[in-house]
């Protein structure tokens, strides 16, 4: 119920007596927290899945324990029950093995995406022992149980399209598989952490210190190869129908998030070399990587604009807020120098990004903090700090 409260129509929340979505989420979170602390669930796998629902899309309500705490609990519990190991030789049924694999890769992906340093201890142990502690193989389509659900089950959720259409189920599975592959390449958590630290004053950790060294150009090529092999069903494209169904909107949102994740990861790859040397995430303005980073920011802006046109901005996952802030910093530059070419277009893009960021305030602490700083006109130093970690250094 807590996870659904972020997406369900506000009328359902009001019918239950809650004044707003935020109030409902605060109350439901406190209830979930009590259940978790009392250890009411005997099945550890169910607890891992519950923790994933708690943290995987939206920020948590303000509390004494942030999302990184619950991610750590989730990862530790997942490892304690062996989700990270190959269970092929166990007495588990095929269905149970597939469920465990899907759950593990969901935990792993979210950790790599947001608080990657939680995996660094295991990575260090792997280096010491010269062995791979994660012997589970990459998830494949065969790990998903695709089938048409019976009418009596579909009736519980108003005959949801996904439950009666195998192709929709397959598309969602393919998007997840491709995101998992991208997580193996990505340094997205590094830029997410930098923005989080600047805007919120919180350091959620950057686990890149223990990553195996890779050249910047090599990382860029790996990302391009990932993009070239991307299946058609996972590609980001706007729905053809003028009034897309709820299922089409959902699939589009996940495809769009995958596209944003790719662009953010490619952007981070461009930044990585100077970051590793201890400097800002910036490269010389004439460097080819600067041009690539600029293209990433422009493409990110276009995707956000398209998402907003379909009125889906409020359903974006929280990590997208960091990308919006980078886009804002980029488009803000020409607004201060009227002589620069493209000032009008840059101003329009700036306001589009700002509009989307404001829509994320309720679900994203990062977006809320940034919006408060901008609205309070106390953000000059903040903009300077953000500008120090984004590419390119200047727009021509």
UniProtKB/TrEMBL annotation:
<dbReference type="GO" id="GO:0008270">
    <property type="term" value="F:zinc ion binding"/>
</dbReference>
<dbReference type="InterPro" id="IPR007219">
    <property type="entry name" value="XnlR_reg_dom"/>
</dbReference>
<protein>
    <recommendedName>
        <fullName>Xylanolytic transcriptional activator regulatory domain-containing protein</fullName>
    </recommendedName>
</protein>
<dbReference type="GO" id="GO:0006351">
    <property type="term" value="P:DNA-templated transcription"/>
</dbReference>
<feature type="domain" description="Xylanolytic transcriptional activator regulatory">
    <location>
        <begin position="3"/>
        <end position="107"/>
    </location>
</feature>
<dbReference type="Pfam" id="PF04082">
    <property type="entry name" value="Fungal_trans"/>
</dbReference>
<keyword id="KW-0539">Nucleus</keyword>
<dbReference type="InterPro" id="IPR052761">
    <property type="entry name" value="Fungal_Detox/Toxin_TFs"/>
</dbReference>
<dbReference type="GO" id="GO:0003677">
    <property type="term" value="F:DNA binding"/>
</dbReference>
